[in-house]
Specification:
The structure holds 2 protein chains of 2 kinds. Chain A is about 25% helix and about 20% strand. Chain A is globular, with a radius of gyration of 22 Å. The relative contact order of chain A is 0.20. Chain A has one domain: 3-Layer(bba) Sandwich (FAD/NAD(P)-binding domain), CATH 3.50.50. In chain A, helix 1 runs parallel beside helix 6 and helix 1 runs parallel beside helix 11. In chain A, the strands form 3 sheets. In chain A, strands 1, 2, 5, 6, 7, 8, 17 and 18 form an 8-stranded mixed sheet that branches. In chain A, strands 4, 9, 10, 11, 12, 15 and 16 form a 7-stranded antiparallel sheet that branches. In chain A, strands 3-14-13 form a 3-stranded mixed sheet, covered by helices on one side. In chain A, strand 17 and strand 18 form a beta hairpin. The mean pLDDT of chain A is about 95. Chain A contains 11 helices and 18 strands. Chain A is an alpha/beta fold. Chain B has one domain. Chain B is about 50% helix and about 5% strand. Chain B has 8 helices and 2 strands, in the order ββαααααααα. A two-stranded antiparallel ribbon of chain B has the order 1-2. Classes of the chains: A alpha/beta, B mainly alpha. At the A-B interface, helix 9 of A face helix 6 and helix 7 of B.
Chain lengths: ~525, ~180
């Protein structure tokens, strides 16, 4: 399919969670939409059930240099090709809480969002119907206000039941994990069969992602999608106050322009910042949207706290969803709960995650110290008796954690990105508090052995944050770049704070809100 | 792409041409490495076997060698997650050379010919990053990468799952026995 030679209504850069949603909503609203994806086309038949083949779904584009003591794990966390990271995401979709949006106001540290939970709530409610979420809102006693889930929760299995007892013996609650996974036939998508291959992509469509939900809608409504088209910069009109289109390299290496009334930048957290920085011009000498100097700043990544154990009961840990079976957000609303330990922030537990024998999150790497016959014995026991859960720990936003351009360039002459990241002492202390709690819970299950893995980065946020004005942020609450209001940003790069929950549901809610504004549609009735 | 071939087995050089085989079958057929030298391949197989028993026969060295020969888009090696910039061949090559250099300086033998005691002692030091003057990639990372490669071929295949009595339950069956 060739690119349009004339001006279109909307050009979208990136085809993942945010880009596909923009494409669906805007094309259904009658806009002429063209989407450009740097990576290849991805089809469901490529989602081979294998932890080796799954690695083909991760980032394969221009290298990103990671510096600092806590790197962001870019390749593992980013996606490559149509659908982006949504293709290998685990579909854990909790909502952010009210205090996540007002961290600066409430606690005197971090940042505030320019919106509150009540602004986003109707969009969470709308998106969960559109995409199909399963869960039990009543059991989630920590959940902020919102409509019940449209589908019942995931069924618990052996591993979940074992770990649940550990929480309950300590007086803590668990609830079914809220997931964008069908537990019954939903809008033509089949129910999940809980085979634990989410990391390799979900070819059945049970898991809500760009390929199962938004691209079919967008293409049916007339949007066009162009894989293997690398956008190298955003163009602005002569005064620099309006975006006019993008420059793109086509698969044969030709440079061309796609002109549009609106440009949506939804590459990913790092690539959005990189493209804006690389789009510097006389009107925007430090990059588009960078009048405040905040472009690239406040990159955050959740600090994962993986806990493992071996339990006498048969747990069959290979069964279920990769995201888990249960949720605990016991201390979520008490960001100062562990202040005596120097900690700050929120975290949650994703409990009883399905595991495979190999893979970065698999059984074998959980004990890298074992080898030879000891590893063989461990593997034989783990496959029947392992238990696991992962803490998702908030990362306090720091200005020095940032995306910058370095001296190297990609094949098209675009400078490569460097991402520096060091978690704050408060976030590191919170991670330790979470690990201590997790080990205590696992001991309370009656497990024979419990241990934890080192800190690992999970999700990438910030870098193009939203805020109240161009003096403190790149974009407004709708993702519109302050200095160039017809340039719209999508994705977790907009998050001023990370919270301690998985970001995809919030990404979707923000896109939904932005689309309402762009199309002039009234907000949902519950707003 | 390999996948686009519709067959999915790995392409190995054999005789005057290329054949599609699993790493285990390639090893049995006497396939020669394309990227690694014969000595590097031998060292990788020996180290993999020490770390994950059975991985030599499962073809860890030919799997890694074949993966080093394909494009980054087709690459399945876990090393891509671990902050190492491609291409990955120098990582393996310098690591394998360094472990052999240590084996020879300590015991006068290449790594693949060390006794159990000698090899285990050397691996202990490697995993604990105690090999002073090591001239390869970070020792702990090299240990972790090779161990995971060996786990991939030994435990990450349909055969490996069966060995552990884990139901494979594929939506889309891998187009080759190893992965």
């Amino acid at each position: 399919m060739t690119l349009p030679k004339d001006k279109v209504d909307v050009v979208i850069v990136g085809s993942g969670s945010a880009g596909s949603h923009f494409a669906a909503r805007l094309s259904k609203a009658g806009r002429r939409v063209v989407a450009l994806e740097a990576g290849p086309d991805i089809r469901t038949e490529q989602m081979v059930s294998s932890m080796l083949w799954a690695r083909r779904l991760k980032w394969k584009g221009a290298p990103v240099l990671e510096t600092g003591p806590q790197p962001i794990g870019y390749v593992f966390n980013a996606g490559w090709g149509v659908g982006g990271a949504s293709i290998h995401h685990y579909a854990v979709w909790p909502r952010m809480h009210e205090n996540d949006f007002r961290v600066r106001s409430l606690y005197g540290r971090g940042l505030d969002w320019p919106i509150g939970y009540s602004d986003l709530q109707p969009y969470y409610d709308r998106v969960q119907k559109e995409c199909g979420l399963s869960g039990d809102s009543k059991a989630e006693v920590w959940r902020p206000a919102g409509e019940p889930y449209p589908m019942g929760p995931v069924a618990s299995a052996n591993q979940g039941r074992v770990v649940r007892k550990g929480f309950e013996s300590l007086g803590m609650k668990v609830a079914p994990l809220p997931m964008a996974i069908a537990t019954k036939t939903y809008k033509g998508r089949p129910s999940c069969i809980w085979d634990g291959w989410c990391d390799a992509g979900c070819p059945t469509g049970a898991l809500a992602n760009a390929l199962s939900v938004h691209w079919p809608e967008a293409l049916a409504a007339g949007a066009t999608l162009h894989p293997n088209h690398q956008v190298v910069r955003v163009l602005t009109e002569s005064k620099g106050t309006r975006a006019s289109g993008v420059e793109v390299v086509t698969p044969d290496g030709t440079r061309t322009l796609v002109m549009a009334d609106v440009v949506v930048l939804a590459a990913n957290t790092v690539q959005n910042a990189r493209i804006l920085l690389a789009s510097a011009s006389p009107e925007h000498p430090h990059g588009v949207g960078n009048a405040s100097g905040t472009l690239g700043q406040f990159v955050t990544t959740h600090l994962a706290a993986p806990i493992f154990g071996l339990h006498p009961d048969k747990t069959n840990p290979w069964f279920g969803a990769f995201g888990g079976q249960f949720l605990n957000q016991e201390h979520y609303d008490e960001k100062e709960n562990f202040s005596e330990q120097g900690a700050f922030g929120s975290y949650q537990w994703m409990i009883a995650q399905a595991m495979k024998p190999n893979g970065l999150l698999g059984m074998a790497p959980s004990r890298p110290d074992l080898r030879g016959s000891a590893l063989k014995r461990f593997m034989e026991r783990s496959t029947e008796h392992m238990i696991t859960m992962t803490g998702v720990v908030e990362d306090l936003p720091l200005a020095q954690n940032r995306v910058t351009l370095n001296g190297k360039k990609d094949d098209w002459g675009v400078p490569l990105a460097t991402v520096e990241h060091a978690s704050s002492p408060e976030s590191l202390a919170l991670w330790q508090a979470a690990v201590d709690e997790g080990l205590k819970v696992f001991r309370a299950t009656g497990a024979d052995e419990v241990w934890n893995a080192p800190r690992a980065p999970m999700h990438i946020m910030g870098g193009t944050i939203m805020g109240t004005g161009p003096n403190n942020s790149v974009a407004d609450a709708y993702g519109a770049v302050h200095e160039v209001p017809n340039l719209i940003l999508g994705g977790a790069g907009l998050f001023p704070t990370s919270g301690g929950v998985n970001p995809t549901f919030t990404i979707q809610a923000l896109v939904s809100m932005a689309c309402d504004r762009m199309t002039g549609e009234a907000p949902p009735p519950s707003a | 792409m390999l996948y686009a071939s519709g067959i999915g087995l790995l392409s190995f050089a054999l005789g005057d041409g290329h054949v599609l085989l699993s790493p285990r079958a390639a090893r049995a057929a006497g396939v020669k490495p394309r990227v690694l030298s014969a000595r590097e391949e031998e060292t990788l197989a020996a180290l993999g076997e020490r770390l994950v028993p059975g991985s030599r026969e499962s073809g860890v060295s030919l799997y890694v060698d074949q993966q080093l020969a394909v494009s980054l888009e087709d690459c399945m090696l876990m090393i891509q997650y671990l902050g190492v910039d491609p291409p990955f061949t120098p990582f393996y090559r310098t690591g394998l050379s360094a472990i052999n250099a240590w084996a020879e300086s300590r015991h006068g033998e290449k790594f693949s010919e060390l006794s159990d005691t000698q090899a285990e002692s050397l691996i202990d030091d490697l995993s604990n990053e105690k090999l002073e003057g090591w001239e390869g990639p970070p020792q702990g990372l090299f240990y972790f990468v090779v161990r995971n490669d060996a786990c991939d071929v030994q435990y990450g295949t349909q055969e490996g799952f069966a060995r552990l009595n884990v139901p494979y339950a594929a939506h889309i069956v891998p187009p080759s026995e190893w992965g």
